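Replying to the earlier thread about multi-chain prediction with a worked example.

Input:
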Amino acid sequence: MVNQQPRKYHAHVWDEPIILEMGRKGERGISIPKVEKEIEKAVKEYKSYVPSKMLRKKRPKLPEISQPHVLRHYLRLSQQTLGMSLNIDIGMGTCTMKYSPIINEELVGLPQFTETHPFQDERTVQGILEIIHKFARIMCEISGMAEFSFQPGGGAHGIFTNACMIRKYHEIKGELDDRNEIITTLFSHPADAACPATAGFKIISLHPDPETGLPDIEALKTAVSKNTAGLMITNPEDTGIFNPKIDEFVNIIHEAGGLCAYDQANSNALFGIARARDAGFDMCHFNIHKAFSSPHGSMGPACGAVGVSNELTEFLPVPIVTFQDSVYHLDYDRPNSIGKVREFFGNIETIVRAYSWVIGMGAEGLKKVSETSVINTNYLIKKMSNIPGVTMAYPKQNIRLDQVRFSLEKLKKDSGVGTEDIARRMIDFGIQEYFTSHHPWVVPEPFLPEPCETYSKKDIDYWVSIIKYVCDEAYANPEIARTAPHNQSTSKINQGVLNDPNNWAMTWRAHVRKNKRPTHK
Amino acid sequence: MTKNRELVHPYIPNSVPEVTNEMLKEIGAKSVEDLLKGIPKRLRFKRSLNLPEPFLVEMELRNHVEEILSKNKTCKDYLSFLGAGCWQHYVPAVVDEIIHRAEFLTAYAGNTYSDLGKWQAFFEFQSMMGELLEMDVVSLPTFDWGTAVAFAIRMSSRMTGRNEVLVPKIISPERLSIFQNFCQSKRAPNNIDINLVDYDSKTGSIDLDDLKKKISSKTAAVYIENPSYLGIIESNGEEISNLAHNNGSEFIVGIDPISLGILNPPAEYGADIVCGNIQPLGLHLNFGGGVGGFIASRDESKYVSEYPLHLVSIAKTEDKKGFGFGFCSFDQTLYITREKGKDFTGTTVALWTIASAVYLSLMGPEGLRQIGETIIQKSHYAAQTLSKIDNLEIIFSPNFFKEFVVNFDETGKKVDEINKKLLTKKIIGGKNIANEFPNFGNSALYCITEMHSKKDIDRLAAALEEVLK
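Result:
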């Protein structure tokens, strides 16, 4: 079955200019409302309201383009973008590229949501507060936690928020002077190391056991001390392997006086199956733009929903939505709160969608999501066996949950074609590239598929057939993958300029300045 | 549905029982339980999740969510004068058309080959912001304005090796709280002290004497906002810049990008780093969801090497015939160096970035100039009209852009009380700032944009007269 012939594919090639090269002087994309005649008479010229030093002297060199051409340009750019909805997006492990239901886009586009202001009187926004409050109750049931905040604007931001709460907890106990270390694992998301570092902590990372892929509990025992502030850990880690001693990890940290934060970025296989609080965790975060179906938006807007146990609710960011006397309220009166991590309430559009997604699933549907995710992953593992050059990392762990890490070390050794080459070659078949893995690459030449519940058996078969095709091809003719892509909107770029101050260009003006003759027409 | 009939869900193709069985058979498992045995029994959730009854039929789901949302009163049905960092500007239809495209909406981390269009839109956002700001480096935005400034403060601290920042006393309390979380507790060894600089009590602008008093060899950066949180256009940008630079400090300025068609971009008066909120550029209010904060600077390695955020660079193809894009200095992000990286980034607000790119290309230089003129004239008409009402006073400088402070002390009525009465007339009054800035008395921050007509402003004035009677 894995010898399917690849379907024909070629990406759109529009060869669009950069927008600053488009249009011509005098064209307009939209008309601006002018002030009424009566206002014009009543007020002075605009310049008299601006201190002269603060008046803009030079017109910004923005393009001048008519509306149909702006539309055409961005439609073409959209066509040169391989969104999840258009392909078998199984490769992006840790990202849970699931279907984002179209109905939710319609709901979140209603003016009853889009035209509400965060500082409106709470009595005028009872609908949106109801959704936030009800979704928080749902998240509490899913995780076992006591309260949630949706303020953080992404997964890393959720982790940062949890680190701020750990900091506040120790500060109030008067122990922050000593408790300045966060323990994490190398296969937890890099944000579990980077975000607590920004919050002021020293980081200790536990390395995976070369046999099991799991962090070593003995190393944890050595790492804890009177300086331990907490543990920030993913489970299953970015390998799809569930840590069976996770509750013992939590106990060790608790006995040392630290708090435990569960990074639930990889939660898609756990709905109704295992809960953060039941393993003893004090806090957790979920990526609403991943397992809860809010679309990834090319990289946000997103939400890193943070949940905490009863003992820690006082530290959550303000406000919390409460329900009293049949009215929803915004509770700011929380003296031990860490305050704000984001202005207003967060990307609430993600919460409207996630509420609608969960309420369209129910308990049975959510469990079905997780069970299907597990079946899909293990089916993919089965199908991937015996592809030349591909091995599964930590083969003794033959069952995985939501994702699985493979290695192309052998392929690279045999053919010189590495994982980044294969990723670039995959997309020649209309399949989004896979995610290699976060660094450091403890597993050499890695890749990390996550075949979540969105994908059918046939989808998985096809995806595996493409992996097999490109690996076979790499053995037969390595040059094809090395110079890939060949059927895409553009070809292999010169990576060197990205780290070269004389050539990098983050704006068109910098590009023009550095290349006396711009390369593009 | 009978009890033992499996749920076949439209979002889950493999929920068809026959397929599940085929797959389990191929795996060599009897049931899904065999695949979950890696989770110890003691950690398994024993009961079913206690969730509300689901709406499995899309039609019913739509009705359910629409019914809840219909309880909201909107700034479309009501006449709103709220701003304070989330402003009601017109969103051109083309913007929504583009960001609803499934390609952009559902893309994620694909590189320049599979997602060339997404990357080009990012680069175009950075490029057009660069023209607006007169700066050569612009980042992809982070979560919000406050976080962008917090990162800029931390960049400055790393660059100067100093651990104190001066910020204006007139600032959004929400932004200040974000700074505090990023600048860490006083007890942490690498904490950055946040010191507040006073305002001139007449004009509301930065008190230069107080700034001179507070700036020191510890000052990593001086941060100001222009226009300020309360709408005032700061006229002493150059003096503040000189004070900062003569002291070896970085000068960071926060701006409202929709003002830059008529206001001088901070680079022209010496800013090293510029931050701001992209929400005015084509984003809906979204209950505060439609925001994003960018960082911009000069194109110098000392700045570029401190950015925590993604920087998209254009790059030629190896065959030199075309171009693509990639992340500049990706090695300094958490993705490569974990805790040794420069703070953190991650999933932020990319789709809003595309919205702002579309907005800026529709507006062009003339559109931005015109909208700036329209807004400032309308806001001054509103202030002029309201100031004619007995006992009502517009405080601070006459140099404001789209927001101004209305003081109600002499009316004998509290802002909350007034706003409640306005609400019965389907008017949402300005933000009550009495708790945020007790010194300014019983005051509210009013916001006027191009969305407000003369009729709207006159309606507000008439309603206020009636309420204050």
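The radius of gyration of chain B is 26 Å.

Feel free to reuse this layout for your own posts.
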